[in-house]
Design goal:
Distance between the termini: 22 Å
Helix content: 25-40%
Strand content: 25-35%
Length: about 260
């Protein structure tokens, strides 16, 4: 099963990091967040990636094209010009990098990937969110209900401390808990190819008409994930992920 990753947005709310590179290439622990996402999928056996490019897509192309070379020991014979690579990394992913337009919206990017996603179900996520969601359980849930689309529903962490009152008396205080009420779209989709019929073109935002119509027609199901999930929309969130990585046991690191 192929994994589509949308990596074409400009990341304007993270402008300090995205002036020279696309947001999926912003590093956490010295590696692009895109790499962390792909490692997560690969851990669960999904290693065939189709990445939708847009803003500064050449940076992602250069990274992927030179990944093996940059991870290798290199022997250069300056007399003959021959170069030998000694590559010992165990990564065995296949990565297709597809240009989907500079200003194409999310739905349009998904539709432009259609020719590269075969004829069966596929997974989809954004290039800026990390989670420890069990992707095999997610897939099993999708197969169990027979609908066209499954999204992973999450309860985001709160930005501020949560207070509970008895009159004016603070009855309980919790420092930045996970939101007690309300679920949001955490991405990590499993989709049937019929969803392409719900996307009109480049100016379609996936989170608007397509998902709204799928929900209205009873074709959208939610896999409720109550463990770790965190997007990286702001510099504050990038620093949070860096701190979690530096702690030595980041919650999204499902691989070895």
């Amino acid at each position: 099963m192929k994994v589509a990753i949308l990596a074409g947005g400009a990341g304007s709310r993270l402008a300090e990091e995205t002036q020279a590179r696309p947001k999926p290439m912003v590093e956490i622990g010295g590696m692009p967040i895109l790499w962390h996402i792909m490692e997560h999928y690969a851990h669960f056996g999904f290693k065939d990636f189709v990445i939708a490019l847009g803003y500064k897509g050449e940076v992602i192309k250069d990274y992927m094209e030179n990944y093996c070379r940059n991870k290798s020991n290199i022997t250069v014979d300056l007399g003959s010009g021959e170069v030998e690579y000694e590559y010992e990394d165990d990564i065995d992913w296949k990565v297709q990098l597809i240009e989907t337009g500079l200003k194409t919206l999310t739905g349009g990017r998904i539709k432009r990937l259609a020719p590269y996603l075969d004829d069966g179900p596929f997974m989809l996520t954004w290039g800026d969110g990390l989670s420890d969601v069990d992707l095999q359980k997610l897939l099993a849930f999708h197969r169990s209900h027979g609908k066209l689309a499954t999204l992973t529903a999450v309860r985001p962490p709160a930005r501020y401390g949560h207070l509970e009152f008895d009159g004016d008396r603070v009855e309980a205080f919790t420092e930045k808990p996970q939101t007690a009420e309300g679920w949001i779209n955490g991405a990590f989709f499993v989709l049937q190819p019929e969803i392409f019929e719900y996307i009109e073109g480049d100016d379609t935002q996936w989170e608007k008409e397509p998902l709204e119509r799928l929900a209205k027609e009873g074709q959208l199901m939610a896999y409720k994930h109550t463990s770790f999930w965190q997007c990286m929309d702001t510099l504050r969130e990038k620093h949070l992920l860096e701190q979690l990585w530096a702690g030595g046991n980041p919650p999204w690191r499902t691989w070895g």
